[in-house]
Amino acid sequence: MGKEIIVASVRPLYRGEMPLADYLTYVEGYLDEAGAAGADIACLPEDFPGLAAQAESIDGAVAGCVMAAAKKHSMYVILPIVEAVDDGKYMSAILIDRRGEIVGRYFKTHPTPMEMDDWGISPGNDIPVFETDFGTIGIMICFDGYFPELAAIMSRKGARIIFYPHFQDSPEIETHRLHMQARAMDNCVYLVSSTFGIPKDQAWMAPDPTVGFFVGYYPSCVIGPDGRFIACSGWEEGLLTAKIDIDRKWLVHGHGEPGICDMKWILNKHRRPELYRREDDAAAN
Question: What is the 3-state secondary structure (H, E, C) of 151-173?
């Protein structure tokens, strides 16, 4: 038995016209639910609490509410907001620890053209990983997930879990699931996704790509290092939790190695980074 932890994916309604104070009280209920379930870490969706063009401050009500919930339940929380910093606006994922203190942040490295042009979002230029008391984690935000290099670098830096807050606007639901599975199994890491849900009394309808910008609501999920789903939510608002063994390995036969081997060990043994860099540079030129 390895190190077991409980991960939580919070999937609230999108805020829309709801007053901020009411919305924070509503989401706090889900964080309380995560705490009651014994969650070691909870992840909120991208663009929390909604209305992405409006930048938040870490000294504001949103961060204060989430930091208080993290401290109350002694759990880590990932808070993705549009953050105003000295040199611009970023799609930020703030890591809050069990004491309710900010211990790290990741700036989305691949904002979409709309986010940059219409909302003034700047791209981040670092790919950090974060140390927690249960292991090393990484974070990528929405469009970042379509660039396999990010998850690969986080894994090479020691990440055992990659959290993936997102707010998709693609109708390709199965394709979206496949790329999340690929990020997990290519790097032998857990992937925990979090996005918004629909009201519990509303029927889901596939997004219509012909009407311009549209919002795709997806099930949140927890995917194992072998690319298999461990847990998956429905379409509705709610909370998804899963108990995972952070030390679990993807054990395989074959690939020319004797006996049963850790797939991550095999991949790292046979990687050829110098070849990849050389060919990538040649292709770019």
Answer: HHHHHHCCCCEEEEECCCCCCCH
Is pLDDT of 79 > 80? yes
In whole angstroms, what is the distance from residue 8 CA to residue 242 CA?
Answer: 7
CA trace torsion 12, 17, 19, 20 (10° rounding): 50
* Mean pLDDT score, 223-244: 95
Residues of the chain with CATH 3.60.110.10: 4-248
Mean pLDDT of the chain: 90
pTM for the complete prediction? 0.93
Q: Per residue in 163-208, pLDDT tens?
A: 999 987 555 677 888 999 999 999 999 999 999 988 887 766 655 5
What is the distance between the alpha carbons of residues 7 and 12, in angstroms, rounded to a whole number? 16
Strand runs labelled E in the chain = 4-11, 41-43, 76-85, 88-96, 102-107, 130-132, 135-139, 161-165, 190-194, 221-223, 229-232, 238-245, 251-254, 257-262
Both tokens of 207, joined, read 């997004």
pLDDT at 204: 63
Please, are residues 162 and 195 in contact by the beta-carbon 8 Å criterion? Answer: no
Query: Which contiguous run of DSSP H or E holds residue 113?
Result: helix 113-119
> Using an 8 Å Cβ cutoff, are 162 and 154 in contact?
yes
Question: Domain 4-248 class?
Answer: alpha beta
Phi/psi of residue 256, nearest 5 degrees = 80, 0
pLDDT, position 95? 99
Question: Which two structure tokens, joined as six digits, stand for 124?
Answer: 């981040």
Dihedral, CA atoms, 278, 179, 217, 54, nearest 10 degrees?
-20
